[in-house]
Records
---
Amino acid sequence: MTVRVRIAPSPTGNLHIGTARTAVFNWLFARHHGGKFILRIEDTDLTRSRPEYTQNILDGLSWLGLDWDEGPIFQSKRLELYERATQTLLDNGLAYLCYSTEAELDEMRAAQKARKQAPRYDNRHRNLTPEQRAAFEAEGRRPVIRFKIDDDREIVWNDLVRGKMTWKGSDLGGDMVIARASEDNAIGQPLYNLAVVVDDIDMQISHVIRGEDHIANTAKQILLYEAMGATVPEFAHTPLILNTEGRKLSKRDGVTSISEFQQLGYTSEAMVNYMTLLGWSPPDSTQEIFTLDEAAKQFGFERVNKAGAKFDWAKLDWLNGQYLHAKPVPELLEQLIPLWQEAGYEFDPASDRVWLELLTDVLRESLTRLPDAVDMSKMFFTDLVDFTDEARERIAVEGAPAVLQAFYDQLGDYEQLSADDAQQLVKQVTKAQNVKKGLIMRSLRAALTGDVNGPDLIQSWVILHLQGRDRLRLQQALNQIK
Ligand code: GLU
């Protein structure tokens, strides 16, 4: 069997992390089996669907590296297909016109509630006579189309994640609406369950992989497959992503869309790696860092959990750090340049390339998220620095002014300064001034950077020297002490 899977987002919001994680699992499964991964945009809800959301979804999937083989296929361009399928169901007596008004349905549900019953449609228009129908039409009522669901049906499937699943027809809420009412007596807009099944049949989807919030839909959809005489695909319902309190991750948890994670400075590699681990673990469960391709080789549903997957920010941060620390300097620099530009730092990406690369290399080890680099590197983008109070103290302690003066004087001889030169100079001054190396390093850092902590001092110094800023800083520090 050829594996054909799909991700079918509705463009009613930005690409959600839950949808993206489902996309990851579909992609991994397709690649593992050498199958096809299809992208379908479920935009039949015309009032809530927006082109900018479609764009956000496409951009997000591309950024994550989840390339698709077919699509994007838009449901809004396929309405005829759904109409035809609905008409066939009507012709075969498997669906019917229902004229119930909203008010009647509300009243029906209220009565069920009073009897402590679960709300459901009571199938009241299943067997209308032609006369009854004509009377409703004459009243100006416009019908929806309902698909018959028999209460005594039992629906069983073998879920690839959850094992044997059994649903009773009576738990599906009565005959379900598959098409909305239409003013001109045609078949109205298709509803989710109908459109999905028509498309999954048409696109020969072999495995439907989606969130466990769709389990009840699956039971309904299996009935539609049968009604349309089609082969029922395999189903895999993936666990939900939970917040730190163990509840379903929602808008209230703040960051939930992929573009927001991107803006926060997470790398695409860390995001997909992390999402893969949200519900799946590789056979060697100590392995936490892998590419999509590596995960695809090992992916299978036997290692997907049934239980919800808790979102763990600390783990995502850790993974992101790992990817940033391992990123080649030129690649990382390309990602930092726009952030520095946005922060208003002045530099020329071309002519400053040498020290920009050195700076990137110095910062790399300390980054958890990309924007961390902005604050950390501030002092490399200005001639003079603001001293923190602690730094001010350090350049004034006994012995420090003489040390700084010695560096200032000696540096006059250096046109270029390598890390080795800088180390040598430190040794020389330590000896000449007869002070502890600790004092030297502390006062030097405070003078050069205006701070008491920061990236590697020698490397930072080399960069400042390349920029022609190190003597200037020492001069500035000496002026402060006077
Ligand atoms: N449009 C549905 C959603 O975004 C698709 C669900 C499915 O995969 O069938 O939840």
---
Amino acid sequence: MLQTLSYVLKKANKNNYAVGAFNINNLEILQAVINAAELEQSPVIIQTSEGALNYAGMDELGTLVHLAAKKTKLPVVFHLDHGKNYDLVVKAIKSGYYTSVMFDGSSLPYKENIRLTKKIVNLAHKKNISVEAELGAIAGIEDFVSVKEKDAHLTNPEQAIEFVEKTGCDALAIAIGTSHGAYKYKSASKLDFKRLQQIKESVKLPIVLHGASGIPANIKKICIKYGCDIKKAKGVSDANIKKAVKLGVNKINIDSDLRLAFDAGVRKFLKENPSEIDPRKILNPAKELITKVVRQKMQMLGCSNKG
Ligand code: G3H
Ligand code: 13P
Ligand code: ZN
């Protein structure tokens, strides 16, 4: 059943686990994620980016997610990911599909981020829709050459207190050294745990970690074996994600790992079955691999059997 982000994350925050938020772009990815949630009896956050909406349509994806949510007793949050465009976030709120939206004002001047986030919070809360907001720039920790530069980009704990108070957001996405995509680190994965701890201690709110894909070695191996050029891809280690959850992260955003699993499944199947042309057969192994990856994430985050 559909639930708000606030409902799902309040429980996660109280019981110190995280819920996986998975990006979907089509029916197959949605089916694979929902199947994993059923198998793990886990709450799940299904999210769509602006790119997903341009690709498949808000009505189309919204209808699919509502149908899937209706068929399960598990809590399903339908969330707009990275709403950078104010009008798109308003459209999502008014659409009746979303139970949660992210207003991503992280690239705006601080005061403007507060002003627009607050406006979105007022609109969304009237409709019982939750709001995730973002403070700090999600960028690879290896990109910062000095402490000063790092402090200028990563989330400032002092500012976070004021930001949460002034905006009234339900969850806060923070920058502690993760980045989007498959190429996050050149050497060992690294997060600013001290910063996370300071933020959590002061804001107490559910904390969101973007750019949390791990680039699982077994999936990467299949991709490479069947021709995908991703040798240098590197994600956040499971140990680092577990530590982040322990320190108070309650929502973990995963997209790249699902892309990788999809790619591995399709490439392997086509290579081994060169005469197959039925899309249903071609996409089935991809769905199975995504389900496998999502199940592993749920187990790791501690949200299995919390549905
Ligand atoms: O945070 C970004 C997500 O991975 C969505 O990516 O904008 O290519 O759909 P996208
Ligand atoms: P990844 O690229 O690490 O999967 O991050 C996805 C994300 O943050 C979606 O908002
Ligand atoms: Zn993100």
